[in-house]
Amino acid sequence: MGIEREMRFVFEKVAPNDLNSMRELLEVYAVAFEDPASYRSRPPSDDYLRALLAKETFITIVARHEGRVVGGLSAYVLEKFEQERSEIYIYDLAVSEGFRRKGAARGLIHHLQNMAKSYGAWVIYVQADKGDEPAIRLYDSMGTREDVLHFDIDTDKTLK
What is the pLDDT of residues 89-112, one digit of tens each? Predict the structure, then answer.
């Protein structure tokens, strides 16, 4: 049995002109979520990605190991109306298989926590799919669980 050396990650927010990092992360998402159709079939244009990454309400952070993007998260800042504050919703978070359980996901969330106050955020929230035990364990260790129901309402269907 070998001794596993500690992995070192560098965490950074993706800037509007860092399209290579964003495209590398999209590939991490495609593989990790086993969803190549969503992440590869119609890739966004450079102009679209630049505009998205320039928005104050969109945050993408990558985890690098030896210069390569091995994980990341994409989140949205949601301005609230009941008080002058925001919440941050982690929409996607994934780490490449060989780098899981080595601190990358936790580091990504900590990096987002450090940025949260500058966005006026009082909380960060994330959802996990039932059965995704590694994600559930991670989020349980970092926050408070709320059991809620999630509904997708198709915009193309007529509501009853």
Answer: 999 999 999 999 999 999 999 999
In a domain, 39, yes or no: yes
| Assigned token pair, 81 | 């109306």
- Where residue 160 falls among pLDDT bands split at 50, 70, 90? low
Tokens of 43: 């890739």
In a domain, 64, yes or no: yes
pLDDT of residue 1: 43
Please write down the HEC assignment for all residues of the chain. Answer: CCCCCCCCCEEEECCCCCHHHHHHHHHHHHHHCCCHHHHHCCCCCHHHHHHHHHCCCEEEEEEEECCEEEEEEEEEEEECCCCCCEEEEEEEEEECHHHCCCCHHHHHHHHHHHHHHHHCEEEEEECCCCCCHHHHHHHHHHCCCCCCCCCCCCCCCCCC
CATH number of the domain that residue 131 is part of:
3.40.630.30
The verdict on residue 79 lying in a domain is: yes
Number of domains making up the chain: 1
Q: What is the pTM of this model?
A: 0.86
